[in-house]
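Late entry, evening session. Most of the bench is empty. Finally got around to the prediction I had been postponing all week. Sequence below, unchanged from the version circulated by S.P.
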Amino acid sequence: MQAIARINKEPEARRAELLDVARQLFSSVGYEKTMIVDITKKAGVAKGTFYYYFPTKEAVLEAILIDHATGLVGEFKSISSNFAAPQKLQLFIECLFSPNHIENIFNNLWAEKQFELFYIICKNSDAIFNVVLSDIIKQGNQDGSLQVILIDETISFLWNTLNCLWEAICNKEPAEMFSGKVKIAEMIIERIFGIAEGTFALPITPR
């Protein structure tokens, strides 16, 4: 019987393939039920190949989110370069909540009650997002459209506010209750960013 030759791929291509396979499985099967052997089998590689790129299953999950965050930031920057700071902030939050290819992964983590892991991987991507938020705030402070003194603290309060909306979506809260929370979030954001009252809107709707 003729042996099947294994296709050698460039390291980045192999890593991307593993991420894509893991993304598919985490999305369709769930994080808990997906084993590393499932990823390697579907990707057609040995276990050792997986561990060459990722030390754990959690590490590949984190890499998926970081790749997503990096791509989202790139898209955001490409369409917002000429926006004023408040409009950039609004668009950025809208991008965060827009349907995306990893949404099912978050839904599965929440359904599996993987709350600690959920927040850990979200926090790890904050370093990427916080650079964008800091730049928005500096722009707004410079042109007077925002009034923020403590940048890092303000960003922290923003994440806490947005987490309340993410939890409401994950918990599938009634539309009326969710809309009320969005209104409160808008008021909080206006207050902590120094935006004129009643001028900031979040186009976020429950799934």
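Two things to note before I forget:
The chain has one domain: 11-17+19-193.
The domain at 11-17+19-193 is CATH 1.10.357.10 (Tetracycline Repressor; domain 2).
Will write this up properly tomorrow.
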